[in-house]
Amino acid sequence: MFWTLPTLLTWARIVAIPLIVGVFYLPIDTPTQNLVATVLFIVVALTDWADGWLARRLNQTSSFGAFLDPVADKFLVCAALLVLVHLGRLHALIALVIIGREIAISALREWMAQIGASASVAVHMIGKLKTAAQMVAIPFLLYDRPLFGFIDTHAWGTALIVIAATLTIWSMVYYLQKALPEIRAKAR
């Protein structure tokens, strides 16, 4: 199941990350850089939905795909956040909170899987809301220009990324609370 269409879409998401970052190093004007990076990010982010849908539809789910999909998502989000910090469109503290949470919860999930308690840290609605806020905030911040002449994408992106950071902390506390009984039981 390594070379199925859903897995190839996931790999494409990883391969596209340097393209999104590289746009900002091209000798083109900033508005064009912003537009190209935003469109690339949106297209690449949509492959996350597409690969899951195709895997279920084509009955091509696999353990490898289940592992690679969230890794690709985290790489994409972390790369975009670092670009936004570099461009001065995102405060480093917000990026640190989001990236730090991703690393901590990934490590927690790995450890919980090793002790046979992965169900206690299964994806929750808080995490899904956090992801939704991030995935709307990031393209707004990448675009960083008025949309349709009246939508202030920087203001909306900033508000949504602050919401995402708040949900990031909330979801991390939630997952840690769910894991705590298992951690205590294994510490004895």
Helix- and strand-based class?
mainly alpha
Rg over C-alpha atoms, rounded to the nearest angstrom: 18 Å
Shape verdict? globular
Provide mean pLDDT, rounded. Answer: 89
Instruction: Work out the helicity level.
Output: over 70%
Percent strand? under 5%
- Describe the main β-sheet briefly: 2 strands, antiparallel
Extended strand count: 2
The separation of the N and C termini measures 39 Å
Subunit arrangement of the protein: single chain
The overall number of domains is 2
Task: Enumerate the strands of the largest sheet in spatial order, edge to edge or round the barrel.
Answer: 1-2
Order of helices and strands: HHHHHEEH
**Weakly predicted, low-confidence segments:** none
Please work out how many helical segments DSSP would assign: 6
Question: How would you sum up this structure, described in words?
Answer:
The protein is mainly alpha-helical and 188 residues long. It folds into two domains: 1-88; 90-188, no CATH class. 78% of the residues lie in helices and 2% in strands. It has helices at 5-22, 30-57, 63-86, 92-114, 125-143, 153-187, and strands at 146-147, 151-152. The protein has a two-stranded antiparallel ribbon with strand order 1-2. A hairpin with a 3-residue loop joins strand 1 (146-147) and strand 2. Helix 1 (5-22) runs parallel beside helix 3 (63-86), helix 2 packs antiparallel against helix 3 (63-86) and helix 4 packs parallel to helix 6 (153-187). The longest helix has 35 residues, at 153-187. The radius of gyration is 18 Å and the shape is globular. 31% of the residues are buried.
